[in-house]
Every structure is written in structure tokens, then in C-alpha cells.
Amino acid sequence: MSANHPAPSERTQVKRISENARYDQESLYAIVDAAYVCHVAFHDQFGSHCIPTACWREGDFLYIHGANASRLCKVMKEGVQACVAILHLDGLVLARAAFNHSMNYRSAMIYGSFMVVPEEDKAASMAAFMEKIAPGRQAQVRPGNRAELAGTTVLKISLQEAVCKTRQGGPNDDEDDLTLPVWAGVLPLQLQAQAPIAATPLQTVPEPDYVKSWGQVRD
Amino acid sequence: MSANHPAPSERTQVKRISENARYDQESLYAIVDAAYVCHVAFHDQFGSHCIPTACWREGDFLYIHGANASRLCKVMKEGVQACVAILHLDGLVLARAAFNHSMNYRSAMIYGSFMVVPEEDKAASMAAFMEKIAPGRQAQVRPGNRAELAGTTVLKISLQEAVCKTRQGGPNDDEDDLTLPVWAGVLPLQLQAQAPIAATPLQTVPEPDYVKSWGQVRD
Questions:
Q1: CA angle, residues B138, B144, B149, in degrees to nearest 5
Q2: Considering its fold, how many domains does chain A have in total?
Q3: Which whole number is the average pLDDT over A31-41?
Q4: In this structure, are residues A80 and A42 in contact, taking their beta carbons and an 8 Å threshold?
């Protein structure tokens, strides 16, 4: 897979355990689309920062948003270089030797600069975010009014300079350790939906499908 | 709470929705101890980077580790400024108005520079990490040999310059929106343990307690 899709740049070239790297669009989109949040790294006069924030994908761009006055939005509007990371932790890998312990995960890293989504496109982008969170809900809620939209900055970053790294499966032990009398295997982890909690005051409205179906595997 | 514990520095002072900030040690330790992974941001000649990696806490330090040859370890050994972020996503908050949608989460951000854990302390630190992952397992596995330990870099960063930000609870809707005929509430998310998967070849050893009990809530 990696062989068919070379790294798009020097800084996305995985060097450690490079057989776990993926540079294809399908792998990237799957990891991005499974994420509600990402971490954005950038550098300013106070140093390096690492900010978690909600994210969604439209086409070949990852989107974030925030209040106009937030530092993240203000800095990103200036076009500073950013690195966006997404991680899904899938399990703890217990090997027979301490050294061979590992974790299963799916991760993506995106390099570039964010661009400001123009005023006329903001409402559609925020609706796309809502569609990811709760399909069909945009038509049910009070949409953003002029002031709310005006106070919100929406930003997007190209997914062109990106790399994925994943690990799946059981432990890779040394041959000599395979007969050691210790349990080995994977302790899986999964981000799972829990029972919905209705807000008070309760509304006498039927639960929409995205609430009824909440409780299935989300990740 | 925030009033009793001021921000330790200018760059840890939360400005947006500052009532959600926490600067006390108890909040910080709880968020760090619940995490298997963190994201480390730093800046080098290629720009800003955001690297997910495993983490654990000992006393007032957060620890990470890696191969000596990994970029993260090489750069951190030089003492460059870093920002470490930890995030637990607890749910999607569905408000009556699109604008008031939010997420529930517990997050921590730590600023500083990593220090190299000296050779003579590495084995004990890696054992502390194992104790977090699987209590009692260090005594069961083959411990790291001289070459394995020599090839591993362990790094720690002080938890002194840190800040937490959390959101819990239902949506905060505008008064005028409370009677809108739309479902509102929280769709909770939780990182949950799934059934353990034993490695092949199967060992005829009893499951240790940390495997038997896997399946309880981990986050």
C-alpha cells in the first residue's frame, strides 16, 4: 500500500516502523471521518501550543471552527504553519517481554496552513459539521442567526500533505519469549456511545433517529 | 475553584469560557492518570509538529518514552519547548440552537521542556508505566535487558505549568429557544474496554487480574 502511495513531503515520511505508514486517501479519510476532535499544533511568540478542537471533513479539506476572538482562530487566520493530529486508540498490546509492549491505534497527521472559509460559505460548512454529528438535525434546530455566524470563524486545511500511521493485531514477541508463562494479547479499547441524556425542561418531541440509534459503536 | 488556584503563567491563562478552567493539582492528576496517550507539540526546522505518544505520571511529572533514534526523543533531549495536551471526549451536546451545540470533555495542557531520565532510573520508570497499563504485570514478563533499555529514551516534563479545561452537563440554550420542538441533551461517549484477545500461540497460564477485569469502564 505504502509503496503505491509515496509520502507527499519530507516531513510526512515515516521513518520509525515505516511499514505502518499509509499515504493513501482512503486510509486518511477513514481516520478523519471517525474523529470528532483533532489536536492543532502551532508556534507563536509564547512558544509551541497544542489545542484540541472539533473537526470535520468536506472533500479534501479538514475543517475547524471557533469564536472570532479565540487565539486559535486569530493565529490560524494569519496563515501560520500548523500540524493537525488525529488519534484513535484501539487497544493495549501486552507482549511476553516488557520491551515489546505496544498500543493499537489509527492516527493521521496533516501539515499545512489553514485558510479562512468565506462568509458566504460558513453556514453551509457549519451545516456539514452538524450533519456529521447528528444527521438531519440541521433542519430541526434553530439555525445560526446573523450575529452568531458573524462571530464564528470557520477554517479549513488541505488534506494533501498528510500521513497515516496505524498498528493493529497482537504482540510481536521475540521467538525466544514465545514460551514464557505469561498471558499475552490485546486489551481492546473503543470509544463507545452511552445512553442519551435528555435535557431539561424535557420536550414532548419524539427522539430523532440519531438519538435512538446512539449506543451503537461510534468509532 | 479557579479562584483559589490562579494560572501558573500567562500562557496557561484560559480566556475563552474561563469558568471551565481548572488550575488545581487534583483536577490535573485525574485527567493525566485517566490517559494512555497525549499529544506533544514542538517546533523544529520543518515547522510545528503534533505527535501522539503514550504517557504516564510519576509524582509531579508526566513521562513519555521512545526509541533513541526517534525524532521526538532526539528533539526533546535538546530541551526544546513543548506543549503536551491530553483530551478525554465525554459526549456531544445537542442544543436547541445550532450555535449552542458543544462537546463535553476533560482536557489538560502542559507547557515546559522535557528532561532525560537518567540511565539508572529508566528501568524503574518503565516499570511504573507497566504498572499503570497492567498492575502486577512487570513481575510476570521478561524485563527489559541491557540492550533494550539502552535503546530506549525516557523523558519527563514537570506538571507545574499546566491548565485543565473541562465541560460537563447539558446544553446551555438561550431562554427564547427552550420551547423549540427539538430534542436536546447529551449523547455521551466513553472509551471502553472490549473483550481481551489472547495471542497465539495460546499459553496455558491463568488470566491475570488485569485481563479478567478488562471490560469495566476505563476512562
A1: 130
A2: 1
A3: 98
A4: yes
Domain assignment present for B174:
yes
Of A109, A126, A192, the CB nearest to B190: A192
In angstroms, the CA A9 to CA B164 distance is 35
Q: Is residue A201 part of a domain?
A: no
- The SS3 assignment for B134 reads coil
Cβ–Cβ gap B197/A180 under 8 Å: no
Grid cell locating A75 = 493565529
Question: What's the complex ipTM?
Answer: 0.94
Q: Is the Cβ pair B187, A130 closer than 8 Å?
A: no
Does pLDDT of B193 surpass 80? yes
Residue B119 C-beta-side C-alpha neighbours within 13 Å: 6
Confidence of residue A200 (pLDDT cuts 50, 70, 90): confident
Residues for chain A: how many in total?
Answer: 219
Q: Which of A84, A183, A194 to mutate to test the interface with B (most CBs of B within 10 A)?
A: A183
Instruction: Examine residue B5 and state whether it is found in any structural domain, yes or no.
Output: no
**What is the span of the domain harbouring residue B52?**
10-192
